[in-house]
Design a protein that fits this description.
GO molecular function: ATP binding; protein serine/threonine kinase activity
Protein name: non-specific serine/threonine protein kinase
Strand order of the largest sheet: 1-5-6-4-3-2
CATH superfamily of the largest domain: Transferase(Phosphotransferase) domain 1
Pfam families: PK_Tyr_Ser-Thr
EC number: 2.7.11.1
Structural class: alpha+beta
Number of domains: 2
CATH topology of the largest domain: Transferase(Phosphotransferase), domain 1
Order of helices and strands: HEHEEEHEEHHEEEEHEHHHHH
Enzyme class: transferase
Radius of gyration: 20 Å
């Protein structure tokens, strides 16, 4: 499909998912600040409306313990780190938040970066959807650019599929609902002319009810030239194990997100990591060739996550076929995200009916 040429905003994504030790009991530090921004946020939370605030860098330092670089498990505040920045846990009064401190961009002076950052913040603050991580505010008043997000209690889909920190395995029903939520979040981004560019299980966060929230639909942070249906970028953003062939050439299109989501669906089915250097094939996306090859011993039943007990083969086959279609090498042969949402929704309906029997 044609993606509008007038698209101005494409979202590149720092790979730094906030994760958390499950079961971690943490008491928020007492709030001694009378900072008006903190009070604004608290008032908005109480009325159910999330304000989008401009924070001072000093305030963000205070709520993150001076950006304490020790990991959460070692008593610090660091939740995760990636090529684009580091994420810290903070508290605004009693509300837990995730503060992303962005790395500087080598080939861009700070004043230009701030202009771009502020323009993009204006666009991003209107992106509100049940399946996107809520952006609470930002800071750009000093040398350091920061974004403040809602904190996600159940960490990333990547960690939950791996049962990190002793978390229980996700059920088939939970996995289908997470897949549907993620697809709906992507559909919203695409309808609003955003391409995520780094869809992966580490960027799919889960709230206290295991509702999927896409994170890192943030900053372009790249020099880009428009073409009629796609965008070419000099800075290739994304994680190799999820990248479509055209994305590796620097082409940006909604169909690249669909491809990456196909890998996420394989993770959801199998519980396997997207890449494993000690296995052959190393990339999860390539295992489908073995499943589809009748001469190979690997069957779809063998591929399904053994930690999951409530699955039904016809439903698994539907999701597997959808994943394969999303992973087509030719982007024009992949479904649009609206079709993906529709397919998953039909499976979710059947799973819900099964659970009522």
């Amino acid at each position: 499909e044609v993606f509008p040429a007038e698209t101005k905003q494409l979202s590149a994504t720092p790979p730094a998912p906030p994760t958390r030790l499950l079961g971690e009991a943490e008491t928020p530090p007492p709030s001694s600040s009378s900072d008006p921004q903190t009070q604004l946020l608290q008032a908005d939370r109480e009325t159910g409306h999330t304000g989008f605030s401009s924070f001072s860098y000093r305030e963000l330092m205070r709520i993150t313990g001076n950006f304490d670089d020790r990991s959460i498990s070692n008593g610090g505040r660091r939740l995760g780190a990636g090529g684009f920045g580091t994420v810290y846990k903070g508290f605004l009064n009693v509300i837990a938040v995730a503060v992303k401190k962005l790395n500087p961009v080598e080939d861009m002076p700070l004043d230009k970066l701030k202009v771009q950052f502020d323009q993009e913040i204006q666009t991003l603050k209107v992106l509100k959807h049940e399946n996107l991580v809520d952006m609470i505010g930002f800071s750009s008043d000093e040398q350091q650019l920061c974004i403040v997000y809602a904190f996600m209690a159940n960490g990333s889909l990547l960690d939950r599929l791996a049962c990190l920190d002793g978390s229980p395995p996700l059920s088939w029903r939970q996995r289908c609902l997470i897949a549907e939520g993620t697809a709906r979040g992507l559909e919203y981004l695409h309808l609003n002319h955003h391409v995520h560019r780094d869809v992966k299980s580490a960027n799919i966060l889960l709230d206290e009810n295991l509702v999927a929230k896409i994170s890192d639909f943030g900053l372009t942070r790249a020099s880009a030239k428009h073409t009629s249906t796609t965008m070419m970028t000099e800075r290739i953003v994304g994680t190799r194990a999820y990248m479509a062939p055209e994305a590796l050439r620097g082409e940006v299109t909604p169909k690249s997100d669909v491809f990456s989501f196909g890998v996420v669906l394989l993770e959801i089915l199998s519980g396997l990591a997207p890449a494993n250097e000690n296995k052959e094939p190393q990339l999860l996306m390539e295992i489908r060739y073995d499943i589809d090859d009748e001469d190979e011993e690997l069957t779809l039943e063998d591929f399904v996550d053994k930690k999951m007990s409530d699955w039904e083969l016809s439903q698994v086959e539907t999701i597997y076929c959808l994943a394969s279609n999303c992973l087509h090498d030719r982007k024009n042969r992949r479904p649009v995200i609206k079709q993906v949402v529709s397919e998953i929704r039909s499976v979710v309906k059947n799973v819900s009916l099964d659970s009522q029997k």
